[in-house]
Every structure is written in C-alpha cells, then in structure tokens.
Design goal:
The chain has 158 residues and is mainly beta. Helices cover 12% and strands 42% of the residues. It is built from two helices and nine strands. Bound molecules: the ligand Nc1[nH]c(=O)nc2c1ncn2[C@H]1C[C@H](O)[C@@H](COP(=O)(O)OP(=O)(O)OP(=O)(O)O)O1. The ligand Nc1[nH]c(=O)nc2c1ncn2[C@H]1C[C@H](O)[C@@H](COP(=O)(O)OP(=O)(O)OP(=O)(O)O)O1 binds next to strand 1, strand 4 and strand 6. The ligand Nc1[nH]c(=O)nc2c1ncn2[C@H]1C[C@H](O)[C@@H](COP(=O)(O)OP(=O)(O)OP(=O)(O)O)O1 binds at residues 6-8, 26-28, 33, 36-38, 52, 74, 83, 85, 119, 121-122.
Length: 158
C-alpha cells in the first residue's frame, strides 16, 4: 500500500470557536474532525487544504490566509509510514459552512471539543491547534490499528 499525503484544516471563529465536520461517509464515519483529504498530483498542500475545505463545507479561503501548523505522521505496524497530514488553521473565510455529502458542520468551543467522538490521536495534539503553536506529531499504531506510541513536539521556528 502506498503512503497517503493529506491535508487537514481547522477554521476558527471569534478566537475561541473551531469548526468541525461530522464525517458522513467512508473511513472513520461518525467522527468529528477538521476538513481535508488527499492531495492530488501536482497540488501543493495549501491548495489542497483550500480545495477540500470548499468541497466539503462550501467555505472559501485564500491560500495566503492559511497558517501552516505542522505535520502529523502516522506509522502502521509500528514502522511503515502510512499517512502524512499537513495541518492548517485559518480565521479568515467567506461563506457559511453547509452540510455536504461528506461532512455535517458544527462550531465547538475550544474548551468543549468532542474528544470521545474524534480520532484517538487528536486529543494529544489539538491544544497546538487551539493555541496556534507549530508542532510535529508522530504516531505509531499496531496491526490492529491501536495507537501504541506517539511523540508530539513544538517547533520553535518562524
Ligand atoms: N489519524 C488522524 N487523525 C486525525 O485527526 N485526522 C486524520 C488522521 N488521519 C487522517 N486524518 C485527516 C486527513 C484528512 O483531512 C481527513 C480525511 O481522511 P480520509 O482518509 O477519510 O480522506 P478522504 O478519503 O476523505 O479524502 P478525499 O477522498 O480526498 O476527500 O482526515
């Protein structure tokens, strides 16, 4: 199986609120997450983040307004790089989030995120999204897809 390169974007409103989408189909159906998906051939990560957000929520953002937060790396069988996810936050957007075939939107206070209904690893890094601190996260799962180890570190670069 080839490695997947994806993007994930969190839209913020009024400083404190974060937009999540309830996954309505496919992998991890029934979970809340930011918006995103697979990068297309020749596409830059920020362009993918903008496109996927529009396709899944109807919101429009400009690439220049996206803040790059870092990379999540997911290893399966504890050693094979399975998925690489580029993370963004953005507080400047146009439109109102709508329900699409893929996602149902809802604004959450950053202090009341639905961790039990989000990806398991999310609880270990979402504070970096809330505080907008650049970071990198590496996650190791076993053959049964259980998270067995992880490392999350802030990156102190400009
Ligand atoms: N372990 C993980 N934790 C997390 O919080 N988000 C993850 C994650 N692994 C992937 N994501 C994000 C990346 C992406 O934005 C989103 C959707 O992943 P999927 O595998 O469902 O992609 P899709 O098949 O929906 O992509 P497209 O078909 O291109 O829309 O979940």
């Amino acid at each position: 199986m080839t490695m997947l390169e994806q993007t994930l974007i969190f839209i913020k409103r009024d400083g404190d609120e974060i937009l999540l989408g309830l996954k309505l189909r496919g992998f991890e159906i029934g979970k809340w997450n930011g918006y995103g998906g697979k990068m297309e051939i020749g596409e830059l990560p920020a362009e993918c983040a903008k496109r996927e957000l529009f396709e899944e929520s109807g919101l429009v953002v400009e690439v220049a307004d996206l803040k790059y937060l870092g990379i999540l790396k997911f290893y399966r069988s504890e050693k094979i790089l399975d998925r690489l996810v580029h993370l963004y936050v953005c507080s400047v957007y146009k439109g109102y989030p709508r329900t699409t075939e893929e996602m149902k939107p809802k604004w959450f206070s950053s202090e009341a995120l639905p961790f039990k209904e989000m990806w398991e690893d999310c609880a270990h890094w979402i504070e970096f999204v809330v505080k907008e601190i650049k970071f990198t996260g590496t996650f190791y799962s076993d053959n049964m897809n259980n998270l067995v180890n992880y490392c999350v570190e802030a990156i102190y670069l400009n």
